[in-house]
Amino acid sequence: MSKDTSPHDRLWEIIKDTRFGMLTHRHTDGGLHAHPLTTQNKELGPKGVLYFFVSKSTEVGQRLRADGNVNVSYADPKKDVWVSISGQAVVSEDRAKVEALFNPMAKAWFPGGPTDPDLELVEVHIRHAEYWDVKESKATQLVKMAAAAVTGERPHMGEHKEVPV
Predict the structure, then answer these.
(1) I want to staple 74 with a disulfide (CB 3.0 to 4.6 A). Which of 18, 70, 101, 119 is the partner?
(2) What is the pLDDT along the chain (165 residues), one digit of tens a residue?
């Protein structure tokens, strides 16, 4: 992260370049259930809301109406970046937002366009977010881990930030 980039901006930089997020919610049996979803945002914005399209014919919207506590995780192992977000999810009726976010990729899943009767918009209002951004090369990471194994001290690699939302 450059010294001019805030943790909030770095969080968005990571998310926007990661194609899918795994949205995890509580299932009716109490277990956790995850779905890969495409983030529809064009920006994160100061309120920290993520947007996803889901199908009404799936369980996702129903589960979120019953319990909106969710986690959304993003990972790009090739870039050594990871994100974990906890928040409150709601199914939104904001048709203007659906129109603004709808794109050609969404049309593959919702051929009726933004008015497709199967389309639901999910908003995840971020309560807590953090990311891990490892800048060191794989070789440097291995050397630092080997040194840590010998010295007993944890290796210091990359950047870990909790993001104020």
Answers:
(1) 18
(2) 456 678 889 899 999 989 899 999 998 899 999 999 999 999 998 899 999 999 998 889 989 999 999 999 999 988 889 999 999 999 999 999 999 999 999 999 999 999 999 999 999 999 999 999 876 544 444 443 444 456 666 655 566 767 877
Question: CA-CA distance, 56 to 164, in Å (whole number)?
Answer: 32
Judge contact between 122 and 59, C-beta under 8 A. Answer: no
**Domains assigned to the chain:** 7-163 (2.30.110.10)
- 146 vs 35: CA distance, rounded Å: 36
Q: What is the CA radius of gyration of the chain?
A: 18
Indicate yes or no: pTM above 0.90. no
**How many CA atoms are closer than 13 Å to the CA of 30, on its beta-carbon side?**
0
Q: How many CA atoms lie within 13 A of 19 on its CB side?
A: 2
Q: What are phi and psi of 125, to 5 degrees?
A: -90, 110
